[in-house]
Amino acid sequence: MRTLFYIVCSAFIIGLAYWAYKENYKTQTALREVKELQQQIAKQKEAIAVLNAEWAYLNRPDRLRDLVDLNFEALRLIPLLPSHFGDSEMVGYPVHKQLQVTETISIQSQQESAQ
Amino acid sequence: MIRTPLRPLARVISARENGENPDVIEAEERVKRNQVINQKIRKRAEHRLTMLGLAFFIGFGAIAGKMGMLAVSEPMEPRLAVANTGIHSQRADIVDRNGSVLATNLVTTSLYAQPHMMIEPVKAADKLAKIFPDINHDKLLKQFTGKRKFVWVRKKVSPEQKQLVHDIGEPGLLFGPREMRLYPNGKLAAHILGGAGFGKEDVRAAELIGVAGVEKFFDERMRDPAQVDTPLKLSIDLTAQATMRRVVEGGMKIMNAKGAAAVLMDVHTGEIVSMVSLPDFDPNDRPAPLLEGDPSDSPLFNRAAQGVYELGSTFKLFAAAVSLDNNLANEDTMINTKGPIRWGKFKIRDFHNYGNQLSVKDVIVKSSNIGTARMAQAAGTNAQKKILDDLGFFAPVPVEISEAKRTKPLLPAKWSDLSTMTISYGHGIAATPLHLATAYATLANGGYKVKPTLLKSDVSTLHGDQVLKKTTSDSLMRMLRAVVTEGTASFGEVDGYHVGGKTGSADKPKPNGGYYDDKVIATFASAFPTHDPKYVLVLTLDEPSIEAAGEERRTAGWTAVPVAAELITRVAPVLNMRPELAGSGQVEYTQAKHQ
Question: Which residue in the set A62, A82, A87 is minimally distant from B186, CB to CB?
């Protein structure tokens, strides 16, 4: 009985040691992966920052104004003025065609015809 | 272990001999033995409790320790170069109220040299001088051939330049990563943003610190690693700022002014939507401050927040406010304007003679010095001091710009009765255009104090204490409107925006006493729309003069007002303000017509 107990115990300890060994290496791999990912994130962030900065630089009001001036022929944009506000009255709504009723029209509901 | 018997033979025998009951002895011994056993059990239990307590202590201690470490340690963003130098090169972005970038960071390269590792220092110096034309070749050569082990060559190097330096092939020339501050909009909000420079420097990183403006005021917050990812949101509207800068720049040129400042403020929140000071500079390449002469001649000088000027007749409205708020007068009360007023050897005169009396409204509309002086005299010095204090003229403007904190208004050393009279029309007191805008915001919003701010607020009204009655505010707005419709600011009318404003033209003081005859500060302080004010606009032109209607004009009515009108025409639509034109407004929007 006692021998069996010792055997079970030592087997358990060997198992635990193996498990710890594996976990150790798993952790190290995970840490390495985290480091790599963090470097990737940092690289991406830097790229985003550069793109954002470039976007802001390209969209600076001075440049946009110059572009508008250069392309006046095509775009015909002028600075926003109070007179550019419109009323809803000025919106051209589509004219609905009125139903022309000159002859008798037979109407039948679908349900009845199904019967 | 020696066991003590329960019935020790010696004692039992002697007891028997004496005729005593030996059971008593047994009981005694039993009690003793039980005591010993109890003590043992107790000790063990104590020991176990201590161990258990210790285990709990260690367990909780570990958790507490970890928590403490987490709380104390600074959060780190994933970064490329893990340089543990104790230098925080990161800095939060600054964005405008709509999220457009005003300031951001870029990673660039710095170039340094280690002369002891150099193979051909002379050749390297020659080539570097060719790549960077502004580098001093002789100095560089001296540094390279001298005993120094470390030389900074350039703090910022572009990718092209980096390649050229690589092509030299000198092992003693080394590159380090470096963050730099970029202001993509250039000069646009230069005075608000200020600028940033390098603090502590290292080969692997450099500290970016704010040197002026918002960057300096919020320096700690910008560098706080926990907040580096949250951009600082300003109240500035980029489009409005661009429009303002362009119009003010144009106006300044037309009016031949040497400088200009404009502030546009939301009357309910104190948010500064746009602030322009010209001439300005590029914060990406901040010029060095002037070492001699007048600092206000430097483009670094923020005329809107630092420039302390006598703002002239724009102060007349405060005299009217005192009279109205203390029930001394109403809009139509007649004021004696017979002049000039003599006070010792001092004389107060009007630009024109306005007759013997004018109503309060007309005193403001016609801008009568005598009228306001009489009103101020009637109200008294204390009432005037109180209102100027309430409106913020006694302290620096509490705005988030480092320069503004140091800019105190100039007040008379001794506040005599004469001071009261001259201050009523804006002489003898000097303040910044930002002060004036803040004060006008209070007059316009129904009399509530506002705290001018450059940060976007999440609420639509941010009123402080009420310092004026609502009725006073309403009357003042009617008067301001009348100044535009029938008074000195007739060029200020903008169709649909109901602009009201007061002009002010003050002679510039000479540096050694007295006033110039031909140099003025022309100011137009306005609010729009006057029936329900939303914004105040203060425009100040420094030394304007223009040929108009056959003579040279310097007064605000001819210089600042037309520019301000153009400003409102251009800026109000950008801020999504719909003009209220006659004829519109009565349209019913509930039903769409169609024929």
Answer: A62
